[in-house]
Specification:
The structure is a single chain. With 735 residues, this protein is α/β, with parallel strands linked by helices. It is 39% helix and 18% strand. It binds cytidine-5'-diphosphate (CDP) and magnesium ion. The site of cytidine-5'-diphosphate has 16 residues, from helix 5 and helix 6. Keywords: ATP-binding, Helicase, Hydrolase, mRNA processing, mRNA splicing, Nucleotide-binding, Spliceosome. This is RNA helicase.
Length: 735
């Protein structure tokens, strides 16, 4: 019995395309002194057709060989000690046969560009090889990652492989979390953290090797690092510089680093069958879920990787999948659902790396993080809805937003490639072939060209780099964005009229925070409320995971939350009250449960708060609390966030004061029903509307008092209050 009509409906992937010709899929590197082609005196390695090229075998049951092979090696390694087994695994990585050649290349060249596809062993192995070769005798080896999760998980893996405790010989350093010690020789860190290390050690003297990893991601910090490490490599000939990338466009890196040689590690890539949808999908999340379930019930063993855009989407998908599979009961094999995104608690992250039990199938719901920075073994099916969350920045208004955006062709190819690492794979693209060819950009625009540069400009200025227009950028940012950053820093009094760092600016630069937050902290000295302000800054830095709102107890949770808002104190002060109450409860977990607060987030806030307290000491600001004087606290907030002020409109929406734009108070705000006439907000988020998140009431005269160079009286004169006495304006407005 076959219901072909239903089958047709179930399978929207009518069109298929061969795996792109230029993919690394069917090539391998013949590397060795015999085959090595030398061009000038540089290394030049060439891909050649893979000999043991495995034909596309995507029919049911055709993947037996590869499963047996896996099972076999699994059995063998079980017998050995964990460490030996890990050593075995290390030897199987694509990079292993090239260990000595790689070391020789590093020895001979100061700068080396290394290319090898995701999973070949670049991140975990290269620092170990260099350590084994003695480089750590001269200093630490730094390996930068664009993402916190990657830095942590890779460091954990490498410490296991070396049989040492994490934080000892192998450690990691991410913002607000330093897991290293005196012993540390291999240091995995976010690119942003290495950037900050320049502030304390401009020549990076404690390092013998710097490996800028995942260079293809072109994050803002990576791009700035390029300029800085290129500069220090000139006066530190002993410093080795490795630029490693998972994509093939390495020439650009090589050109930038004065024609540095390119070392290519051949991938073991199996063919990937690409499927497009026949028609565009109206709801890609639903389409992704349906596709995952279809694969689960119709396709041979192999795990599934689904690319989604963010935590919320992943949680929704997880819930729906759980619900639907529960409905099917024992009719289908077990489906393990593993989410992975940047904010996922560490203890849950390791779940995605655990082998899938026999008979079950794993579905990994991931953000872009799984595109290149994390390797998950056993993935055979990739579902690619074609979107990611991307920052965009409007230099005219200074507004930054995180938008769900179509990915680039380069991203689409990386995603597809995740399915062909251990055997032939299949990729289901939830968009049409027409879309792919005509609508997607070739490459993702580097972050430096679509972001607010205030933070980076402040860092560069504190490194004494004055002439930013002539900084050696690989791709320069728009001049308008640079100018906007200078303007903002000037408004915050971090720079003087000549563009030089002021004392305020120098103090601000000590804090690993956005300049507006740093300014808020530095300004708290004047208002004698530094202790209250760092609690607020810490709570803001934790993000939106403080309050817990379980589906079945939403009313209780909302009531508990509103308790902190008594007196319409505003979201910032409410956060401070949460922190202080928790502190008074002696940091009690029970207290958190009772108040629908996430313990984990609070612990993190406490950690950040303590570090900020340490930094206050460094910039010689006394720790003083003034928590009963809310105006003092609000004025400190305004000192940092005055560019983010908005005024109520007659229809209940708000209009930003500078660069007028219509915005709304986020429904989660304690002030969303109160609608004060003037507010200052922490950030804008665009969902269905442009929302202000974390809002505090403000007196308009503060703007002129605090930022006279930014606001004039005419900006803050209230047209409503001119017509009627103050206080009645709101009652009269038509909301
Ligand atoms: O950096 P690259 O993508 O070239 O590879 P890698 O991250 O060094 O990964 C090499 C291998 O280490 C992968 O095949 C993973 O199986 C393993 N690995 C792991 O098990 N857990 C991690 N956190 C990272 C890597
Ligand atoms: Mg890597």
């Amino acid at each position: 019995y076959r219901d072909t009509a239903a089958e047709e409906k179930m399978n929207p992937f009518a069109e298929q395309e061969a795996w792109e010709e230029h993919q690394i899929g069917k090539a391998t590197l013949k590397y060795g002194s015999k085959n090595k082609k030398q061009a000038s005196d540089d290394y030049q390695f060439v891909f050649e057709d893979q000999i043991d090229f495995i034909k596309a075998s995507v029919m049911d049951g055709d993947n037996v060989d590869y499963d047996e092979e896996m099972a076999d090696s699994f059995e063998k390694s079980k017998a050995k000690s964990a460490l030996e087994a890990l050593l075995d695994e290390r030897k199987k990585l694509p990079i292993y046969p090239y260990r000595d050649e790689l070391l020789k290349a590093v020895e001979e060249h100061q700068v080396l560009v290394i290319v090898g596809e995701t999973g070949s062993g670049k991140t975990t192995q290269i620092p170990q090889y260099l350590h084994e070769a003695g480089y750590t005798k001269r200093g630490m080896i730094a390996c930068t990652q664009p993402r916190r999760v990657a830095a942590m998980s890779v460091a954990a893996r490498v410490s296991q492989e070396m049989g040492v405790k994490l934080g000892h010989e192998v450690g990691y350093s991410i913002r607000f979390e330093d897991c290293t010690s005196e012993k540390t020789m291999l240091k995995y860190m976010t690119d942003g953290m290495l950037l900050r290390e320049f502030l304390g050690e401009p020549d990076l003297a404690s390092y013998s090797v710097v490996m800028v990893d995942e260079a293809h991601e072109r994050t803002l910090s990576t791009d700035i690092l390029f300029g800085l490490v290129k500069d220090i490599s000139r006066f530190r000939p002993d410093l080795k510089l490795l630029i490693s990338s998972a994509t093939l466009d390495a020439e650009k890196f090589s050109d930038y680093f004065d024609s540095a040689p390119i070392f290519k590690i051949p991938g073991r890539r199996y063919p990937v069958e690409i499927n497009f949808t026949k028609a565009p999908e109206a709801d890609y999340l639903d389409a992704a879920i349906v596709t995952a379930l279809q694969i689960h019930v119709t396709q041979p063993p192999g795990d599934i990787l689904v690319f989604l855009t963010g935590q919320e989407e992943i949680e929704t998908a997880e819930e729906i999948l759980k619900h639907r599979t529960r409905g099917l009961g024992t009719k289908i094999a077990e489906l393990m659902i593993c989410p992975i995104y940047a904010n996922l608690p560490t203890e849950l992250q390791s779940k995605i790396f655990e082998p899938t039990p026999e008979g079950a199938r794993k579905v990994v719901l991931a953000t872009n993080i799984a595109e290149t920075s994390l390797t998950i073994d056993g993935i055979k099916y990739v579902i690619d809805p074609g979107f990611c969350k991307m920052k965009s920045y409007n230099p005219r208004t200074g507004m930054e937003s995180l938008l769900v955006t179509p990915i680039s062709k380069a991203s689409a190819m990386q995603r597809a490639g995740r399915s062909g690492r251990t055997g032939p794979g299949k990729c289901f693209r939830l968009y049409t072939a027409y879309n792919y060819h005509n609508d997607l950009d070739d490459n993702t625009v580097p972050e430096i060209q679509r972001t607010n540069l205030a933070n980076v400009v402040l860092t560069l200025k504190s490194l004494g780099i004055h002439d930013l227009l002539h900084f050696d950028f690989m791709d320069p940012p728009p001049a308008e964005a640079l100018l906007k950053a200078l303007e903002l820093l000037f408004a915050l009094s971090a720079l003087n009229k000549l563009g030089e760092l002021t004392k305020v600016g120098r103090r601000m630069a000590e804090f690993p925070l956005d300049p507006m937050l740093s300014k808020m902290i530095v300004a708290s000295e004047k208002y004698k409320c530094s202790e209250d302000i760092i609690a607020i800054a810490a709570m803001l830095s934790v993000g939106n995971s403080i309050f817990y709102r379980p589906k079945d107890k939403q009313v209780h949770a909302d009531n508990a939350r509103m308790n902190f808002h008594t007196g319409n104190v505003g979201d910032h002060v409410a956060l401070m009250k949460v922190y202080n109450s928790w502190k008074e409860s002696n940091y009690s977990t029970q207290w958190c449960y009772e108040n629908y607060i996430q313990v984990r987030s609070m612990k993190r806030a406490r950690d950040i708060r303590d570090q900020l307290a340490g930094l206050l000491e460094r910039v010689e600001i006394e720790l003083t609390s003034n928590s009963s004087d809310l105006d003092a606290i609000k004025k400190s907030i305004t000192s940092g966030f005055f560019p983010h002020s908005a005024r109520l409109q007659k229809n209940g929406s708000y209009r930003t004061v500078k660069h007028p734009q219509t915005v709304h108070i986020h429904p989660s705000s304690g002030l969303s029903q109160v609608l004060p006439r003037w507010v200052v907000y922490h950030e804008l988020v665009l969902t269905t509307k442009e929302y202000m998140r974390q809002v505090t009431e403000l007196k308009p005269e503060w703007l002129v008092e605090i930022a006279p160079h930014y606001y004039q009286l005419k900006d803050v004169e209230d047209p409503i209050s001119k017509k009627m006495p103050r206080g009645e304006g709101r009652a009269q407005s038509d909301r």
